[in-house]
Amino acid sequence: MAGLELLTDQGYRLDGRKATELRKVQARMGVFAQADGSAYLEQGNTKALAVVYGPHEMRGSRSRALHDRAVINCQYSMATFSTAERKRRPHGDRKSTEMSLHLKQTFEAAVMTQLFPRSQIDIYVKILQSDGGNYSVCVNAATLAVIDAGIPMRDYVCACTVGFVDETPLADLCYAEESGGVSSLALALLPRGGQIALVQMDARLHQDHLETLIEAAMTACKGVSKVLDEVVRQHLQEASVLSRE
Amino acid sequence: MRWLSALTDNMSPLRLCVPGEKLCSVEDCSTGTGVYQRHGYIYSSLAGYVLRKNEGEELPVISVVRETEAQLLPDVGAIVTCKVTGINSRFAKVHILYVGSTPLKDRFRGTIRKEDVRESEKDKVDIYKSFRPGDIVLAKVISLGDVQSTYLLTTAENELGVVVAHSEAGAQMIPISWREMQCPQTNAKEFRKVARVQPEYLEA
C-alpha cells in the first residue's frame, strides 16, 4: 500500500506510537462469579477474556493424570466476530491448537503444579477482538485469571510481541504491522527473575538482530508486568474494602 | 471477613503482596502456605496478605493468605465426608464433599472397597448391609489412586462410617448400634456400618 510506512523518519508508527511504546492496557479481574478465576484484558484494540477452573479432579481420561503434578489444560479460541471477516472456524483449527499448546507450555513453567498431584487446571481464553499480539494478550489475561483463582504461581507471566523494522525493534505490534511483513517474535517472561517462559517466531530474521529483539521484548514485558501489578493490587484493595464492610 | 480484622487488631497492618514478590530471606522466617523458596529467599506465590506468625522458639512462619479459601485437595490420611452414589457387591462409589470441615467446590470421586469397610471379619462384609446410595459417610483417605482408580477410602475404624442415612420410608434414621439404624416413623431396623459420632458434630 502506498504511503503506509511502518516507521516514519521521525520515529512514529502507524498508530502514532514510538518504537518502544506499548499500547494502552486496561484490565479487570473477577469478571465472572461462577468460574474459579477470570479476567478481562484489553491491549489497544485487542480484547481477551480468560477463565480458569481448578484445580479439580481429572475429567475425561484418568490415564492422562500425572502422579506428582497437575495437568494444565488450555483452550484458545477466537470469537467469530473478532476479525474483520467473520471467522469461519473459531476453534479446532490448526492455529488455535498451536496457540493452546503454547499457552499450556507457558503456564506449566509458571504455575506450581507440584502442589496438586493428580488434578487438572483448565485455562480457557477467548479473543473478543483481534488487533495483533493475540498470544501476548492471551498470556497476560490468563495470568490475571490464574491469580484471581488463587492458584500459586512463581511469578507473573507477561508477554509481548515485538517486530523488527529498519534496524529498530518495535514493541507490541498491532494487526496492520503484523500483516505488513514485519518479522515478529512473541516472548513470554517471568519478570522478576528475568526467566523466559516461551519464545515463538516464524518469520525470517538475521542472526545479528536476535539479541536486540529479545532485549526489546524483555523490556516491553517488564513494562506490561508493572501495569498488571497495579491491576492486581487495586483488585486486592477493593476486595478487602468490600469484605470489611 | 471477621478473622481478617481480628488479626489486624493483634498485629501491624497486613501487607498486600503479589506472586513473585520477595518477602524475606530464609534466615528470617520459615515457609508456610502460599510461599515458596528459591536461592535462599522466600517469595510469595499468591496475591493476598502476608501473615507472619511467631512460633516461640523457632523461626516465625511466613505465609500468604487470600480472602477466599483456596481449593483444598483430599490428602492421604485426611478425614473426609462423602455421599454414597452407587454400590455393588465389591465396593461402594462415593462423591467426596468435604475435607475435614472445608466444603469442596468440586466433587471428587472415591471408592470404598469391601475389605476396607470394617476392621474385623473383612471377608464376610456385605456391602448392602453397610451402605446404601444417598448415605453420608465419614471416611479416611488411604490412597490418592493410580491410573485406574479414584481416591481409595476406608471406614475401618469405630469413628468412621455412616452418619446420616434415610430409611426406605424417607425419614432420617437414628443409630442404635454399630451396625443398625432405626427409622422413627416405621420403627423398621436397617443395617448400616454406623460411625460412633455424637449427634452435635454432624455436618451434612
Would you write up a description of this structure?
The complex is a heterodimer of chains A (245) and B (204). The relative contact order of chain A is 0.17. In chain A, the strands form 2 sheets. Chain A has a 5-stranded mixed β-sheet with strand order 1-2-3-5-4. A 4-stranded antiparallel β-sheet of chain A has the order 7-6-8-9, with helices on both faces. Helices cover 31% and strands 29% of the residues of chain A. Chain A has a single domain, classed as GHMP Kinase, N-terminal domain (Ribosomal Protein S5, domain 2), CATH 3.30.230. Chain A is an alpha+beta fold and 245 residues long. The mean pLDDT of chain A is 90. Chain A has 4 helices and 9 strands. The longest helix of chain A has 38 residues, at 207-244. In chain A, helix 1 packs across helix 2. Chain B is mainly beta and 204 residues long. Chain B has 2 domains: 13-69, OB fold (Dihydrolipoamide Acetyltransferase, E2P) (Beta Barrel), CATH 2.40.50.100; 79-198, Beta Barrel (OB fold (Dihydrolipoamide Acetyltransferase, E2P)), CATH 2.40.50. Helix content of chain B is 4%, strand content 40%. Chain B has 1 helix and 16 strands. Chain B has one helix at residues 2-10, and strands at residues 15-17, 22-25, 30-31, 35-38, 41-44, 48-53, 61-65, 79-87, 91-99, 102-113, 136-143, 151-154, 161-164, 174-175, 180-182, 189-191. The longest helix of chain B is centred in the first third of the chain and has 9 residues, at 2-10. Chain B starts with a helix and ends in a 13-residue tail after the last strand. In chain B, 33% of the residues are buried. The mean pLDDT of chain B is 83. Classes of the chains: A alpha+beta (245), B mainly beta (204). The A-B interface holds A 36, 54-57, 62-63, 65, 67, 112, 116-119, 147-148, 150-156, 190-193, 229, 232-233, 235-237, 239-240, 243-244 and B 1, 4-5, 16, 18-22, 34, 36, 38, 43, 45-49, 66-68, 70-71, 73, 105-109, 144-148, 150. Chain A: This is Exosome complex component RRP41. Chain A: Keywords: Acetylation, Cytoplasm, Exosome, Nucleus, RNA-binding, rRNA processing. Chain A: It is found in: Cytoplasm; Nucleus, Nucleolus; Nucleus, Nucleoplasm.
